[in-house]
Structure of Glycosyltransferase:
Amino acid sequence: MASGICQLHIFFFPFLAHGHMIPTVDMAKLFTTRGVKASVITTPGNAPHLSRSIQKASELGIELDVKIIKFPSAEAGLPEGWENLDAITNEVNRELIVKFYMATTKLQKPLEQLLQEHKPDCLVADMFFPWATDAAAKFGIPRLVFHGTSFFSLCAIKCLALYEPHKKVSSDSEPFVMPNLPGEIKLTRNQLPDPAKQDMGDNDFSRFMKASDDSDLRSYGVVVNSFYELEHAYADHYRKALGRRAWHIGPVSLCNRNFEDKALRGKQASVDEQECLKWLNSKQPNSVVYICFGSVANFTSAQLMEIAMGLEASGQNFIWVVRKNKNNGGEEEKEDWLPEGFEKRMEGKGLIIRGWAPQVLILDHEAVGGFVTHCGWNSILEGVTAGVPLVTWPVYAEQFYNEKIVNEVLKIGIGVGIQKWCRIVGDFVKREAIVKAVNEIMMGDRAEEMRSRAKAFGEMAKRAVENGGSSSSNLNSLIEDLSLRRH
Ligand code: UDP
């Protein structure tokens, strides 16, 4: 493909959150496999999280680098070092979240300076940067949008905005059907993101969504981390019924083929990766359930306690990732979220990772037989790729839509019973529900049926990114379009 003097140079600019930065780095790596030169833009505080895998790639001669622009913390009235969404630890920080989003709008100027200096052939920028289309247009550069979610959710979001079915029910718990969306998909107002429930009048969120959608429409198109076989009805709907130009190129996590690639992905893990694999090696195939709620969701101590008791009562082997550090500024934090003597009792049976887990490395191990997930799209896709059934535990953002595709369209998971969208901290789930759901994906005929469906999707995912596969071909045709455009 493109090489030598015709080599394309593409800039990738992810939103400052791990769920956006991780797949964007994967995507940039994927483009380099087609001879493209790729640069990922980020801020000083975020650079260490992505430079580990980029550094390794560039040592191998791959043309991939990081370009750093300053984050305006002080200007935006944010604490020093507050450069990533994972700095949010609870709802009380809502004001800071708004400031954080506002601060990202100030990245337009430094982005434009970079574009002017390097004149890349294309800018792939996150949907949270609606101003990026105009920034790129100033220099005649096409802008692609990356939403970081499924075709299904992209369609669902559009469906709600177009038909407002949630305004035609009389209570928050009354189900409504999503009009003109393939499948009989039902939701309740309780499951919608808070901002989406607000009247579509003039408020910050509706203004942002409008700007984002306008920017989508004026952009060159949308790149989607998904594969056609997984959600073809929604991929078709998005393109044909909604008239969007889109390329599906995923699962992008599959560009990480070996141990090192997977271990270097995202933040530095809080466990020794080899030790973690050793622990998994000691377990039978499909005998461990993996529990992780992504990079932002943050549960209360009471909920963590309930999860611990549920896991113990389920009798299953587990790896449980908790977004808490044992040490807080050098002080031993009192762990009020674990039952007395829990870890001693669970020795050999359960592993708690406090902080960051090497998720793909764990999911891809044959001992892992199920995944309890908050339904972030990356996590779902990584679970699908690994071929494991899922317990769905949506918390915020578009995760309730993602839950629908898992349980009702793909039929590879079961819900833990969350009824209500809840910013960051999540709706409370009792231990009995946790035991029931975990056991249902790990044991019995239904579990086997879901596992075999999940495995089939996992195989399709791998074929999609191989030569001639749907995602591989879509990526080639995107690169060809961009090359032709340049000449
Ligand atoms: N992740 C990880 N280790 C963790 C937590 C998350 O590697 O301990 C990765 C996970 O593999 C995924 C991303 O972080 O690629 C999280 O994205 P997702 O869309 O699942 O959720 P979000 O963090 O955006 O809510």
Remarks:
- The chain is about 45% helix and 15% strand.
